[in-house]
Amino acid sequence: MARRIEAALLTLLLCLAIAAEPARAVFLPEDYLDIDPDAWYAPGVCYCMEHDLMQGYGKNQRYFEPDREMTRAQLAVTLWRMSNEPVVGLALQCRDVPDGCWYANAVRWVLAEGLMVGRSATVFAPDEPIRREELAFALWGYARYLNGFVPELDRRSFEQYRDYDKVSEYASEAMCWASCLGLINGVKDTDGTEVLVPWATASRAVTATILMRFCLDMAIYV
Asked: CA angle at residue 145 from 144 to 151, to 5 degrees?
């Protein structure tokens, strides 16, 4: 009898805990005035909005602006949110990141964890668009942050891209990892071959899709 009562109490507590959890908002492509429900990036946009990784623009955030470039500050904030907005006591040396601005704590954290690097010791360039290799480096670093390590992958598939050697040295391993896992895919060049274009900027649509792939692969939200 005692065990039955104990089991019943545990079940009741579990039900109360579930009921206490706030309901997650469900986003649909139709919620935005500039998203085609059939667009390749629609699932990624909705996923990132549901998990509060990205935000919309305009009144009631009804515009996502998928073709707009993702900025370095926006990516820093996104990664920071994924980690439940940790507090870091690092003193910022970047003269272009004012204390108290909406991205200051996020930049402080990504620099402390080595997920992003500044343009120099004193310049973070928050308003500059994120490059594809920078996005790969940030997610590679975040995977290490979660698991403590990232397994080495076969570079042969990575080196099949004819511009693999154009990836900056600091991001080469990260770009190999991201491309081998299918997080960042090649794009068609003018001659029909796929290239990595590591220095090309990433749009909000592309970033949302890559973030969704990463979170699902790493089981960050279950």
From this structure: 10
Q: Which residues pair with 63 in a beta bridge?
A: 57
What SS3 class is residue 221?
Answer: coil
Cα 63 to the center of its chain, rounded Å: 19
Q: Which SS3 state, helix, strand or coil, does residue 84 take?
A: coil
Q: Are 112 and 88 in contact (CB under 8 A)?
A: yes
For residue 159, the SS3 value is coil
Asked if 184 and 134 touch (Cβ cutoff 8 Å), the reply is: no
Residue 128: name the closest of 70, 82, 177, 186 by CA: 70
State residue 116 phi and psi, 5-degree precision: -135, 160
Rounded mean pLDDT of 58-76? 90
Distances (CA, A) of 104 to 64, 100, 131: 23, 6, 20
Quick check: 87 pLDDT over 60?
A: yes
Nearest 5°: the CA angle 210, 213, 217 is 140
Number of H helices, E strands in the chain: 8, 2
Higher pLDDT, 102 or 6: 102
The per-residue DSSP string of 159-199 comes to TTSTTGGGS-GGGHHHHHHHHHTTSS--EE-TTS-EE--TT
The Cα–Cα gap between 4 and 60 comes to 50
**Paired residues of 188 in beta bridges:** 194
C-alpha to C-alpha distance for 162 and 154, rounded to whole angstroms: 16
pTM passes above 0.90: no
d(CA 165, CA 73): 27
